[in-house]
Amino acid sequence: MTVPSPVAPDGVVAPPAHGRRRWWILATVSLAQLMVVLDVTVVNIAMPSAQAELGFSDNDRQWIVTAYALAFGSLLLLGGRLSDLVGRRTTFLIGLVGFAGASALGGASQTFGMLVGARALQGAFGAVLAPSALSVLTTTFTDPKERSRAFGVFGGLAGAGGAIGLLLGGFLTEQLNWRWTMYINLFFAALAVCGALAFLHASRGRPQRLDVVGAVLGGAGLFAMVYGFSRAEPKGWDSPWTWGPLAASAVLLVAFVVRQRRAGGDALLPLSVVLERNRGAAFLAILVAGAGMFGAFLFGTFYMQTQLGYSPWETGLAFLPQILVLATCAQLCTNIFLPRFGPKVMVPIGLGLAGAGLALLTQIDVGSSFSTDVLPGLMIMGAGMGTAMPAAIQTATLGIDRDHAGVGSAVVATSQQVGGAVGTAVLNTIAASAATAFIAANATSNPPSPAVANQAAIESFTTAFGSSALIFAAGAVVTALLFRRRAASVGASGHTGAPAEAATPIPA
């Protein structure tokens, strides 16, 4: 229902008080979004230093990443629903304070177990924070032009957060120490808490029961999925530690869907949120982008450090041109091209461009240089991500009932998280297989000569980049077929996918 704007004494309709501070709200939620997204990669560069200080093994090292991913991915739907039931401002603040506390605990860790526990807590509070931040944005910006501008910023951060994490992680690790990759979140969170207290209005959640059974089924299903894919690289696809959780995940998620169909108004995830055709295509695009993007960052980092000899800080700087191109394209896409052409054109073009950039990276070799052989591919990929991600996120959250904004936002974050887990697992396996096959075919000694081992590493990188390119290409084709034509998705207000009426924002 549209909430009328207050009327000034002279009879002129005044903008809502909330609306006058909406750009500060954008800054606040963008800061929170950046903190959550960059934490996926900021710790990666710091892990060797943490390992040397805390004395854990190479096999244990993966749990620093996996603990965060498991908690974050499995609790997102519950976190999104809580923001609808409890109130977006409340859950936003809880997520910020909890994330900051977990980060402080991680920075102060004296043992491996303490660090893993802190990362799991970060993921849990991130699962509360991420959907709250996006739902605040969704309910604050309803004017088509302002919405496009806001989602250009927010979507650009979603796409660039991983690269920013590499840049920040490299700087903090080299200039200070690995603990500051955790402590830095205290500064982000403090600024965001001040912004939330100053600019976000308190709101009452929807009076409704929490679907506990649905929360358990959905959370367990997502946990099993992320865990299964995380086991694929160390254990192999034929291991029961891999296919067992994946099979359990399939059963649990089917049971979750059945439960949601029967839960009616109390459903944790109303199926109408994901079954609308444009929205479903947008969720798929975000999943594809997550799968290809995190794999590209992972293997790009490996290549720069092992082949080009870059330090962590230099590796982060190498991604800076990509971030700048991504941010520029995000604003151009959402403010100029998306309203004119719609997601059916812009999202597939963006995914196709990202795939083309990765295809260029398959041409690297032992003697390749960054400026001529790596940078062009990174920049084209950045242009693609800046075109696809903001358009997909804006479309995924457009037209969702205000009472479901939190859980709808959670599906956006879940899509990206699951895509990252799937992409990393699949690409790791493909890359390892390529390296093993090359050594088997070319090695004349055991262990293989340095030259053969070096070329095998190159084969693994190029194979991973090529596979990522295929993921993006497939996503471009499928989303082009799924998105409705622009004429079918333009509302009365004349912007793509808009509802016929544009409601005035109400307090978040």
Q: How would you describe this protein?
A:
The structure is a single chain. This protein has 508 residues and is an all-alpha fold. The chain has two domains: 17-201 and 268-489, Growth Hormone, Chain: A (Up-down Bundle); 211-267. Helices cover 78% and strands 0% of the residues. The chain contains 20 helices and no strands. The chain has helices at 17-20, 22-38, 42-54, 58-61, 63-86, 88-107, 112-140, 144-175, 180-199, 212-235, 240-263, 272-275, 277-306, 312-318, 320-341, 343-361, 370-397, 405-442, 450-482, 486-489. The chain is globular. The protein starts with 16 loop residues before the first helix and ends in a 19-residue tail after the last helix.
Helix and strand layout, with pairings?
Layout lengths: L16 H4 L1 H17 L3 H13 L3 H4 L1 H24 L1 H20 L4 H29 L3 H32 L4 H20 L12 H24 L4 H24 L8 H4 L1 H30 L5 H7 L1 H22 L1 H19 L8 H28 L7 H38 L7 H33 L3 H4 L19
Helix pairs in contact: 2-7, 2-8, 2-9, 3-8, 5-6, 5-7, 5-10, 5-18, 6-7, 6-9, 7-18, 8-13, 8-14, 8-15, 8-17, 10-11, 10-18, 13-16, 13-17, 13-18, 13-19, 15-16, 15-17, 16-17, 16-19, 18-19
CATH class of the largest domain: Mainly Alpha
Distance between the termini: 15 Å
CATH superfamily of the largest domain: MFS general substrate transporter like domains
Q: Helix fraction?
A: over 70%
Please give the CATH architecture of the largest domain: Up-down Bundle
Mean pLDDT: 81
Number of helices: 20
CATH topology of the largest domain: Growth Hormone, Chain: A
Main β sheet profile: none
**Alpha-beta classification:** mainly alpha
Overall outline? globular
Order of secondary-structure elements: HHHHHHHHHHHHHHHHHHHH
How much of the residues is beta strand, in percent?
Answer: under 5%
Beta strand count: 0
* Domain module tally: 2
Catalogue the unreliable spans: 1-17, 487-508
Structural Rg:
22 Å
